[in-house]
Design brief:
- The chain has 136 residues and is an alpha+beta fold.
- The chain has two domains: 1-30; 32-133, Lipocalin (Beta Barrel), CATH 2.40.128.
- Helix content is 26%, strand content 36%.
- The chain has helices at residues 9-29, 95-109; strands spanning 36-39, 52-55, 60-64, 68-77, 80-90, 113-117, 120-124, 129-133.
- The chain has an eight-stranded antiparallel beta sheet.
- β2 (52-55) and β3 (60-64) form a beta hairpin.
- 15% of the residues are buried.
Length: 136
């Protein structure tokens, strides 16, 4: 029986590719599909609401910002993620909250990577967004 170190170059490349695929599948399996994620911020004064994001395994995303809500599409592959926001319906909103919605929508659409640290999902782009998994 050959040892690991005695593998041919082709066999070694195949082992590395299998290991990389397993790591990618493991990372994707760890994404909290079907879970409500709450933006890790304090509610604005006079409100209990914080933005919420939920991504289903089929790629459908439910997006609640400070004032606007709607659906979008998400693609999660390994540690990469892409979000495309669809039309968002606006409720009555203050100018401050409207501005926060614009900033958050822009940040979400520029996310390229994600990582998980216990119950926190970190979406990485030009702006890092931290979401906590809902406990209810």
């Amino acid at each position: 029986m050959r040892s690991f170190w005695a593998l041919t170059n082709i066999q070694l490349i195949a082992v590395i590719m299998l290991a990389a695929g397993a790591v990618g599948a493991w990372a994707q399996a760890q994404f909290p599909f079907e879970s409500e994620m709450l933006l890790d911020v304090r509610p604005l004064p006079g409100s209990k609401r914080v933005p919420i994001l939920e991504i289903l395994a089929n790629g459908r995303a439910m997006i609640d910002l400070w004032c606007r809500s709607g659906e979008g599409q998400a693609e999660v592959t390994g540690d990469t993620i892409r979000l495309a926001l669809g039309p968002l319906a606006e409720q009555s909103c203050t100018p401050e909250r409207r501005q926060r919605d614009e900033e958050l929508a822009a940040a979400l659409s520029q996310v390229t990577q994600w990582r998980r640290k216990e119950d926190v999902i970190i979406l990485v782009g030009p702006t890092e967004l931290r979401y906590r998994l809902s406990t209810h």
